[in-house]
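Progress against Task 2.4 (sequence-to-structure conversion) is shown through the following example record, which the project officer requested during the mid-term review.
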Amino acid sequence: MSFGDPNNPYGQQQAQPGYPAQNPQGVPPQYGYPPYPQQPYGAHPGMNSNLGTGIPPLAHWGQRVGAYLLDGLIILGPMYALGFIDLANSDDPATAGPGPFFVVGLLYAVGMGFFQLYREGKTGQTTGKKVLGISLRREADGSTLGFGMALVRKLAHFLDSIACYIGWLWPVWDAKNQTFADKVCSTVVIQVGKG
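Structure tokens generated for the chain above:
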């Protein structure tokens, strides 16, 4: 005995147009909201689940700070050391002006700053980043930035400082560990092998 649809031999009624579908006999109705999608193991809520698919592990804040401090020491250390030599050689340190050693140190700092910027754009790593095993990359495709975009990112670090330096701390709680400059320039800092 067949009533209705020949493809439905057990006689379960199909939903009528304009009326909600009913549960089959013996299945209790489901109340409440649909089930919440589960996060992958180890992920915290709000974390972008696409990060783990093709991007290497992101550099944590400590690695970034360490690389920044090491780069600052490499760039500014010799300039200050040569400046102190000038200061020690002067007759009256209170009235001493910049001497020849300080000028050489200043030229070194400017040259080394541009060299580090060139390396960051070309390879993604300054000397400090290379020692700590991290690299600066484009967020979209993982390629290096190039000198021009690395310079723009360096200038964009002004945004990190303007809001009470909160942009420098932003990677601590950001899902992609990005500063404001990283967000503006669409870059990420990733972990790579040391050396």
